[in-house]
Amino acid sequence: MKISIIGAGSFGTAIAFLLAGKGHEVAIWAREAEIVDGINQKMRNPTYLPDLRLTGKIRADYKVEEVLKSAELVVFATPTHALREVATAGRSFLRGEEILVSVAKGIEQETLLTPSQILVQVLEGRVLKEQIGVITGPSHAEEVASLKPTTVVASAYSRRIAGMIQETFMTPMFRVYLNHDIIGTEIGGAVKNVMAIAAGIVDGAELGDNAKAALITRGLHEMKRMGSALGASQDTFSGLTGMGDLIVTCTSEHSRNRFVGYNIGRGKTLDEITRNMTMVAEGVRTTRSVFQWAEKNGVEMPITEAVYRVLFEGLDPADAVQNLMTREAKEEILI
């Protein structure tokens, strides 16, 4: 297939490597001339995963129209906050026949839409909703690029398209399951980033393993609450895009969101941390989006609220923990 990847960050680069390894012809769009030149001249992305030697039929361009030309499948690998802009820029260059796949994990601020919903809205009248899907799950780019065993899910608004996405991405080291609950898979992928910031704070402040286990477990409850309100299947959150992604993002050294939380737990400010980060921690913006959604819909998400107040209102992490631990006594329930 001719596959276009919109976004040359770490995951976009890893996916390009994966798909080219299957014999697909891959074109990557990047804003930065140095990344385009690095891929075309040295088969390396100098900014993201610079040690990865790209192989197969891969080329890069900074003109989105060139990258989208003749594409059969388009992967949107930009952060959620940039997705609307790049989808709008590429809209007129789509023929309407392509399969579109988002790999972003977040909730757009203001609209509170998931990545697939953004694509549906922006591309209405150009691309059918049924042609849009997602790949999501516990899949750090560093490990995908190293061909370490990775398992994700494909979901789409059409079962047929979901199956085509599964077939396209499946490799011996990148196993793809089908999950037809697209809203559930995207909520899991977004909320787990908020919880990863919280888990990082727990680690940075040296609050212990008991606190970390409680955080992950209660974080899953919040994920389920949001998903339930949006019509998602509860089973989804016991799977790869719920518990699976939550575990890896809350515990891995590769997690950018855990990195942000860890440094906050060590006493640094959000501005100090993000100022020197090359890669985007989706959870920072998603925390604001999920908090706003919870307030708007009257859904109790106390961990999300605590992370929001630490990030954006200057609440001391120690006070946030105290507030969570001294909440009204409750029963442990799933929803």
Protein described:
With 335 residues, the chain is an alpha/beta fold. It has two domains: 2-180, Rossmann fold, CATH 3.40.50.720; 191-325, Orthogonal Bundle (N-(1-d-carboxylethyl)-l-norvaline Dehydrogenase, domain 2), CATH 1.10.1040. 51% of the residues lie in helices and 12% in strands. The protein has 15 helices and eight strands. The protein has helices at 10-21, 33-42, 64-68, 80-90, 115-122, 141-145, 159-169, 182-204, 209-229, 240-251, 256-265, 270-275, 282-297, 302-313, 317-325, and strands at residues 2-6, 25-29, 58-61, 73-76, 99-102, 132-136, 150-156, 174-178. The longest helix is centred in the middle third of the chain and has 23 residues, at 182-204. It is globular. The termini are far apart. The model has no long low-confidence stretch (mean pLDDT 95).
